[in-house]
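Dear all,

This email documents one entry for the complex benchmark we are building for the journal club exercise. For each entry we list the sequence lines for every component of the assembly. Then comes the predicted three-dimensional structure of the complex as a token string, followed by one or two observations. Please use this as the template for your own entries, and keep the labels exactly as they appear.
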Amino acid sequence: MISRKRGLFRVPAVVHQEETPLLYTNDLAVSYNGALVLLGVSFAVTTGERIAVVGPNGAGKSTLFKVLAGVLSPTSGEVRVAGHEPGGHICIAYLPQRSEVDWGFPVTVYDVVMMGRYGKIGFLARPSKDDRAQVQQALAVVGMDGLAQRQISELSGGQQQRMFIARALAQEAELILMDEPLAGLDMPAQEQILEILDSLRDRQTTVMVATHDLNLASEYFDRLILLKAKLIGIGKPEEVLTADNLTEAYGGHLRLVETEDGIFVLQDTCCGGGH
Amino acid sequence: MDVVIEWILAPLRYPFMIRGLLAALMVGIVCATVGTYMVLRGMAFLGDALAHAILPGVAVGYLVSGGARGPIFWWALGAGILTALGIGAVGKGAQVKEDTAIGIIFSGMFALGIAIISTMRGYAVDLSHFLFGNVLGVSWADLTLTAVFGALVLLVVFGLYKEFLLLSFDPVLAATLRVPAEFLRYLLLVLIALTIVVSLQTVGVALMVAMLITPAATAYLLTQRMATMMLLGAFIGALSGIIGLYLSYYASVASGAAIVLVATAIFLVTLLFAPRRGLLRLWVRREEQPTTP
């Protein structure tokens, strides 16, 4: 592996260990001010998988993602990404919920996608021709090449989300964590995002998506993780979304309708995103 | 025409006016550049607190030097950096909320400063200089210090432009990309403190926050990229400084107040008429779009 030396204090590249799962957690626990948000979470994810993390509000989905991204340290337990702790990686991209972003900030789409390159550019250095090419290419993948000079407040919800996916691509992320990427988007915008997820699978990029939409999760993802502070189930949708598991996670707020395609879930809790 | 030129040139016959204009120009540029981060990160209150908290440093400097300008600068600088680091560390302990803690520290320090100054004889005049600035009393030595430290601040902002941008826009990405976020946060506070100290003589402690945020906020309404916001903010800050000093000369208004009033007026006009984010534009847009049921 050739590393380009640019900038001071460049982040040392972590050599990925082959033949270990891309992501692996063991007995993960996180507590905030004495309250347990996550408890005893253990699972493994292999390269190229597409996984949905589902569970009710406050189940710890965002917390789990922040721990995986290395932004938050777990209270106990361990996380390994390609055999290492999250601390040494810049190949993990965390896409924030759209409601957490300051959309009035004076930056263009191009500026935001270029931020994905900062880890590679290093301290005190400026973007090179190669960095600019990577940004253009990432924008093309998500179909936003024409919008590079737009200020981010002028984007639609779907465009905002695709911009962040482009940033993850510019970052050359191998594991992309998306927090509620489809919340509040209309159907065409949702489908565009799902198409991009398909193209990510072709690139062997591993994607984990936190969502409250169980139907969407069971339709488009290889495996589900059902979370409510602890891990209630992991596996194929029909293995995880059993009546017992759902009752355990959601209490009485779900109705299950059995059809020939499997279990269809009617939710009467809602998580706010644009309804 | 000749009248206008004469009107502009007349004050320049006085060396103190030339020094004052140079000081106002430099302060306008440096303040708006650093102020851009304060506006984008919502640090206005923090900046105000930092400016006030420097007063005891200034007072002690005054006391030990017997009123000489040079030592006051260094004492203020020391106090500014110490307070910046102190304020940066506040909020780690969670007994009270961060803004409460800052409010307590800043008013306590400010009171200490006033207490020290009030023990000196003839304090009334000097206290008002610290509070409201005295740009016409700037010496060439003061100007040199302002230029050197102002340039240092600008150099750091230029060098770490993309790091500060990332930290301001998306701290989570900054953390995943291993940008030293904590270090940069403290560094930004130290830059703000430096800026306040070099601007102290021009606008004083009480009006400092206006120089930091008003031109930058005006630029925010007019631009879509952070670099443009900084450049435009610097231009507006410098312009406010110069127009304010002329206003002060002809209308006999206190110079610091005049500068801040000009900056405020420019902001208000921009708030109304800015092409994209202005209030008029918003009203027009609301008229055009029928309200959705």
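Observations: Chain B is about 80% helix and 0% strand. The radius of gyration of chain B is 20 Å.
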